[in-house]
Amino acid sequence: MKNLKYIIVMLLLVALTNTSCKDYLNVNPKTEMTQEVLFSTEGGFKDALNGIYIQMKGANLYGRAMTMTTIEYPISNWDGDATISTSVAYKLARFNYTDAGVESSLSAIYSAEYKVIAGINSILDHVDENKYVFKTPGVYETIKAECLALRAYCHLDILRLFGPIPTDINTGNKLAYVTHLSKTPNPLLSFSAFQEALLKDLTDAEGLVKDIDPIVKNVIPTDAYFAYRNLKMNYYAVKALQARAYLWFKNQGKAYECAKIVIDAKDAKGNPTFRLGLAGDMAAKDYVLTCEHIFGLDDFALYTKYSSLYANGVLRKGSDNSVINSQLYGNTGTDIREVNLWELINLPQSIAQGYVLKKYKVDESSKNFKQIPLLRISEMYMIAIESTQAGDAQALWTAFCTTRNIQQTTLPSDHSLLQNVLLNEYRKEFYAEGQAFFAYKRLNAPKANILFVPGDATVNYLIPMPKTEGATLN
């Protein structure tokens, strides 16, 4: 991206065998196109932003590494390759960041995140000066807001993965918060300066769409571009991301405030805009609980990913119920995740068996449930419970336990013990979504608190700065 005259709108080609009501999420493949041409029409801006969403589904980002694979290995969520001593998975499970393969896999994430940010910045660098090309009411505000919030989303994950532990912000890497395409390297910022830039993006995004987003106004949009707002960075996704960010920045008051706005959101009929999933949803094969998705990625390749990663045992955990049912869930016999999300399969070319996760198991021919969640309502419950007073926390916890069909226990009054309860829940709730590792890091959880950690592992949440030009991509 060093030649600023050109931009690659789409880095991924999506092959679809069937049309869908969600086709607006996919744009026709484009090759090199001058920015002057691309950003000369409203449609060009739409195509460019849709290309960003597609890019985020890449294997080094949320289509795999930041949800299902790389980010899950440091907390030993998988067996498979993680049992082979020469594998990257095995070394990640032991926090061996000096290994060349580990360094390469983490660098690929770092570089991919900043490449997405560079594409976002290209849009933002033109959206105001070309505001006159927007003819449809609300499109300018929506595109700008989504870009600002997506920029914050990617930067927050860079900070959470490569930055300091929030309990010790002076130890660890400084990182770049990139806001413009530039030919010069971007400065590395202090934790507080990075935080300020990130929160500003989210505040600006919120202000742009708070009063116009169809998901807030509870209206059926006339423009198809505004359909399926839970698959785009909508207003409530901005609030949810603020809640996640404020919790990371140890501002529990603001974290609770933002999370509660999302929890309390209602649709036109007075029902929750985002509801906690139930056993009935899983009985309908909606294992990923799409009703909970505040923001996610529509992934038509999910059947292929499930087949190549889970159905053949590459990503598996345990060979009998002592690992999943007993250690992870505590043999409740009722937890809808314990009962519905795992199955024992015969491993290919082996007499052995292994438990595999069904969260991303979908029918090949169906268009339903092919989504990767990036922000879920259950996380808002976890954030709110951790961030509020005992009475409110207990009410939220009871509601959560009811939907998961688990015992409605009394939360501990000691905050550190409460955090341990929630850590266990993050592990169950966000398996193969990437959020559990960040919960462990945020709280600087000791080895004793990390289920499945190898005995020879030395826990280390401070990942070295990758040997890449990621932050200086121009």
Major sheet: 2 strands, antiparallel
Tell me the number of structural domains: 1
**Class in CATH?**
Mainly Alpha
As for the CATH topology, it is Serine Threonine Protein Phosphatase 5, Tetratricopeptide repeat
What sort of overall outline do the alpha carbons produce when their principal axes are compared?
Answer: globular
The proportion of residues in beta strands is: 5-15%
Q: Helix/strand-derived class?
A: mainly alpha
Succession of helices and strands: EEHHHHHHHHHHEHHHEEEHHHH
Instruction: Output the number of helix runs.
Output: 17
Query: Would you tell me the overall average pLDDT?
Result: 90
Strand order of the largest sheet: 1-2
Proportion of residues in helical segments? 40-55%
Distance between the termini: 5 Å
Compute the number of strand runs. Answer: 6
C-alpha-based Rg, rounded: 22 Å
Named at the architecture level, the CATH assignment is: Alpha Horseshoe
Low-confidence stretches: 1-31, 470-474
What would a concise description of this structure say?
With 474 residues, the protein is mainly α.
Features:
mainly alpha; Serine Threonine Protein Phosphatase 5, Tetratricopeptide repeat; two-stranded antiparallel ribbon; 17 helices; disordered C terminus
Q: Could you walk me through the main structural features you see in this protein, from its secondary elements to its overall organization?
A:
The chain has helices at residues 35-38, 42-56, 88-92, 100-127, 139-162, 191-209, 214-217, 235-248, 252-264, 279-283, 302-309, 322-328, 336-340, 377-387, 390-404, 415-429, 435-442, and strands at 6-7, 33-34, 293-298, 342-346, 353-357, 371-376. The chain has 474 residues and is mainly α. The protein has a single domain, classed as Serine Threonine Protein Phosphatase 5, Tetratricopeptide repeat, CATH 1.25.40.390. A two-stranded antiparallel sheet has the order 1-2. It has a two-stranded antiparallel ribbon with strand order 3-6. Helix 4 packs antiparallel against helix 5, helix 14 (377-387) runs antiparallel to helix 15 (390-404) and helix 16 (415-429) packs antiparallel against helix 17 (435-442). The chain is globular. Residues 1-31 and 470-474 have low confidence and may be disordered.
